[in-house]
Specification:
Elements (H helix, E strand, L loop, with lengths): L7 H5 L8 H7 L10 H14 L7 E4 L3 E4 L11 H14 L12 H10 L10 H5 L11 H9 L5 H6 L2 H8 L1 H11 L15 E11 L2 H22 L1 E12 L4 E12 L2 H14 L10 E13 L14 H15 L5 E5 L9 E5 L3 H5 L16 E13 L6 E6 L2 E14 L3 H4 L6 E8 L4 E7 L10 E7 L2
Antiparallel strand pairs: 1-2, 3-6, 4-5, 4-6, 7-8, 9-10, 9-14, 10-11, 11-12, 12-13, 13-14
Helix pairs in contact: 5-10, 9-10, 11-12, 12-13
């Protein structure tokens, strides 16, 4: 057992990461050792990332113990860069989290100083001065590269700043110069946010925490009005909305609501979250209350203005969309399903059901969910073909009689075969071919059977299956 993380007091008494637990206890008999839980640490770090959304939506994870925040254009909302750093660290300390933070013009410089230095805010012209006394490990280099640099006497970043670049690249590889240029701000290093950035958003911050659900819904309606103004300016409507509730203890609740049609009406948007909050009521613990409420539009699309005609009859899609939104918000997005066609010539893969996401596509027969019902197909097709015992006069001919579900049927008429080859890119090249027959028994009942495998070419003895019935 070895130490993988230390607090400040453990570092002061001389303990190090990677040190054996027995040796550490010999140095400090009162040492409190807790078993490491990487899954819990990752969940805690993601919870902190959610909490940091109050400062900027551009939050990226940095390994197992760090976060990157792109605060471009956000610092003035918190009183400047120094005030923002102070607010972040003081709030985290109040939550029981000891953290270090640095603001600079590059991610590499912030990483180096926050982990190996002490500056809080660094100007673009101060990069070389701040980096010079730091060890080469502050450049995010592999351990073997940092060790090789120290062996030749290049222990500080200042030693690299003065050294010729070509010999460094030949001996230690191009990554050394890349990391150095990233830390100095000469090479751009874009951040990848862990969550998609909303197209539009509006928020309210409260002096006193909120707990009443009705008041939260009323504020959601006011936020929807602010979002509507932004959507109207762009001529768009929201399809996926998210309500973020920041609790005072640092936990963040994310409630998403999907709209069946593009929306910019504040009342309709608020109604979506009324249903969603009722559905997740037991999982939404207000605790000591929420201090920030934010409404974001995660996905939007073009919304053309429409005017009701003189008949007073509304668009047929509006009542249906309202019904779909209400039911989906209450019972989940998969509670309403619609039939769909798929790009496959195998009957069991050519159709299925999918959640209703777009009412316009549902009403439009030529839309992506539309299409014509295939000809010569039964009204009922089994999801899994059922084996039958069939007898044919000739190997390649239709069946004359068959046993299915403990009942014997005699065939009066038959049509076929309709040959359907296997999808080799899914089932493999050796999957047998099917010959489908439409048969009618002496009682007038019609069935859809297929013979699997071609005689003397794929199989020696073919098998028969029932795949559907016509009536």
């Amino acid at each position: 057992m070895r130490l993988v993380a230390l607090d400040t007091l453990a570092e002061r008494i001389g303990l190090k990461r990677g040190q054996g637990a027995a040796e550490a206890r010999a140095m400090c008999p009162a040492l409190d050792v807790i078993a490491a839980d990487r899954a819990a640490d990752q969940a805690f770090l993601e919870g902190l990332a959610d909490w940091c959304d109050r400062y900027t939506p551009l939050v990226a994870l940095d390994g197992k113990d760090g976060l990157f925040l792109d605060i471009t254009g956000c610092a003035h909302l918190h009183g400047g860069e120094k005030a923002l750093v102070s607010d972040v660290l003081s709030r985290l300390f109040a939550l029981g989290v000891e953290a270090r933070a640095t603001i600079s013009s590059s991610a590499g410089l912030s990483w180096a100083v926050s982990r190996h230095g002490h500056d809080a805010v660094i100007g673009p012209e101060e990069a070389d001065r701040v980096l010079a006394p730091l060890t080469v490990a502050a450049l995010r280099l592999p351990a073997e590269t940092a060790t090789a640099l120290e062996r030749v006497g290049l222990k500080q970043i200042g030693d690299l700043l003065e050294a010729p670049r070509a010999p460094l690249a030949r001996r230690f590889g191009p990554q050394l110069l890349l990391r150095l240029d990233q830390a100095r701000g000469r090479v751009d290093e874009p951040l990848s946010p862990r969550l998609p950035v909303p197209s539009f958003s509006a928020e309210r911050r409260f002096a006193e925490p909120l707990q009443d659900e009705e008041y939260i819904l009323e504020l959601t309606r006011h936020l929807a009005k602010d979002v509507r103004a932004s959507l109207e300016r762009q001529g768009e409507g929201g399809r996926l909305f998210e309500l973020l509730l920041f609790r005072v203890d640092g936990r963040v609740f994310r409630v998403k609501a999907h709209a069946a049609v593009a929306l910019n009406d504040a009342g309709r948007i608020a109604a979506l979250f009324r249903e969603r909050l009722q559905a997740v009521h037991d999982d939404l613990d207000a605790g000591y209350g929420f201090e920030i409420l934010r409404l974001a539009v995660l996905r939007s699309e073009r919304l053309d203005p429409a005017q009701q005609d003189f008949s007073g009859v509304p668009d047929e899609s509006q009542p249906l969309a309202a019904f779909v939104d209400k039911v989906s918000a209450r019972f989940g997005p998969d509670c309403l399903m619609q039939a769909r066609f798929a790009e496959s010539h195998l009957p069991e893969r050519a159709g299925g059901f999918s959640p209703i996401r777009d009412v316009a596509a549902l009403l439009d027969a030529s839309g992506p969910e539309g299409g014509a019902f295939p000809e010569n197909r039964p009204l009922r097709i089994f999801a899994h073909p059922e084996p039958v015992e069939a007898t044919a006069e000739v190997p390649e001919g239709p069946p004359r009689s068959f046993n299915w579900r403990k009942t014997r049927y005699r065939v009066a008429r038959a049509e076929g075969p309709e040959r359907i080859a296997a999808e080799w890119w899914i089932d493999g090249e050796n999957h047998p071919t099917r010959d489908y027959f439409r048969v009618e028994d002496q009682e007038g009942r019609r069935f859809w059977l297929f013979r699997e495998g071609l005689y003397e070419r794929e199989v020696s003895s073919a098998r028969w299956f029932m795949h559907g019935v016509f009536a």
